Amino acid sequence: MLTWHFCPTTHTQLLASLNSIIYGIIYGGLTNPKLLSYHQINDSVALIHSIRQSFLRLYTTMITKMALPTTIEKLDIDVLQNILARLSAVDFASADCVSRSWNHVCSRILCRPKFASACSNNPSLLVAIEEVANEVLSKLIRPQFAILSVGSLFSMQEAFQLITTKLSSKIPVIVNWSSGFIGRDAFYEEFKKIPKLESGIRGIVLTVGCVPGMKVKSISLQKQVEEHPQDFMIDKFVTDIWEFSTSISGRQSPAALMIFSREHPHVGINTVEKLDYAMSPETVVVGGFCYDFRHTATEELACDAVALVFVADRNKPPGIGETKFHAALSSGLSPVGPTYRVDSVTEKYGCMAHLIVHREGPFEATEMEELSTMYIGVTKRRKCSVGQEKEKWMTSLAFHRILSTGTDNEYFLVEDVGVKTGDTFQCYLTDSNTARSSTDSVSNLVRSFNGSDKWEVSGGLIFASMHRGQPNGDSSLFLENLPGVTFAGTMCLGEMWRGDLIPQESQEQKSAQGCFLHRYNAVYLVMSYAP
């Protein structure tokens, strides 16, 4: 297990770390003279023997006094940084705990954000976890959070136990049952999209991230209980985010939220409406609905959703630049037909709604044969508040799949609840041509990050509909525009987006700014850094 805090280290651990760090790395430098000079190598080799002898002499006192040999401190800082910068995550974690000076050097090395990711479709969960963890931890990274998406044929609880053992219980870890994955294969170094099959899916993708200058915490939305209705729980979820952000940054709204939610219609709609009310326009929100999830936040009750909360640290060390989050939406839905207004709503079984509607404007013939690929996009205007905060009107857009309609579209039976009398909506058809065109528009925005002398891209994530497009259609946006940037993706039952990257053509997205609940779309998160 990796430990990322300064701590006393036992004789055996220190000796093992020094063997790995100094013997392996410095002797490796003999094969590449550009890394270390001849005199530096000779001095370092002599230092190895001095350090080992010091450890042997101090063995009997290490239990009561964790004092480090002074010879460690004599290693030149530049040489030490050169050595430590080439370690794997595991060895780097050990070096991070050797002494305060080594910890300081490690912090200097990891002053920029970094992503590491790998996927595996090995049929054995144990082997798959081993493959992706070894690949990710072979990189130089100090994880601050981890996301593991697993196939439905694997045990999520077992996956959670395995990955937290491999990483650490001290960092936020979220494991979710996914409808598919996008990622780089741990062995073959090629990107692949692993979709859900009829029998389910075996496969995993692991992503870990390091964001110096920021704090990351997982905060859960707990299920309602008899004494606390769901609205109370959502308010508590929002205020927990506020309190964490305020304690770290001095500002109520965090930099970004990454949300994983069970597909509970009422909870999802109400939650994003509250978040849109509660968060400043600069807060980026991305996420998706999944079958189920586990996370490391302490919880006494089961939860409906969990958010990774990213907050800028007002006490960040000097020399750390600014990390920003950007989010874009590639739509796969095309509007068809007229606008309708809802005259009455009857909710059924808590998971669907029967709408009596009338058409606004002139009649337009609408083909309704393929109902399984059609949605209504409902524009909702609601009064919203959190706790005792002042109410204000909020406008949002949410999509509901059409289950059936009347002969003349006088009624609609749709999935999910939350539609109210007076709401207006338009029908939307899933359209691969629209998806490609929208992806091209977003691609132009993302391409603007490439080659910038002010910002550098550190990584990216994709939350894509399980029903979208070609095998590598969604991943091509990163592969073609940001080559070399680490990214990964998960396929969702529904997508969440509230971002700052909006193509000029996407006027329908601008018409109702907010945390949109989407279908048949892809959400792209880009993390950038300004030194």
TrEMBL record:
Q: Which Pfam families match?
A: F-box
Q: Which SMART domains match?
A: FBOX
* Gene Ontology biological process terms from the UniProt entry: positive regulation of proteasomal ubiquitin-dependent protein catabolic process; protein polyubiquitination
Instruction: Show the stretches that span the lipid bilayer.
Output: none
The F-box domain covers: 75-115
State the name under which the record lists this protein.
Answer: Putative F-box domain-containing protein
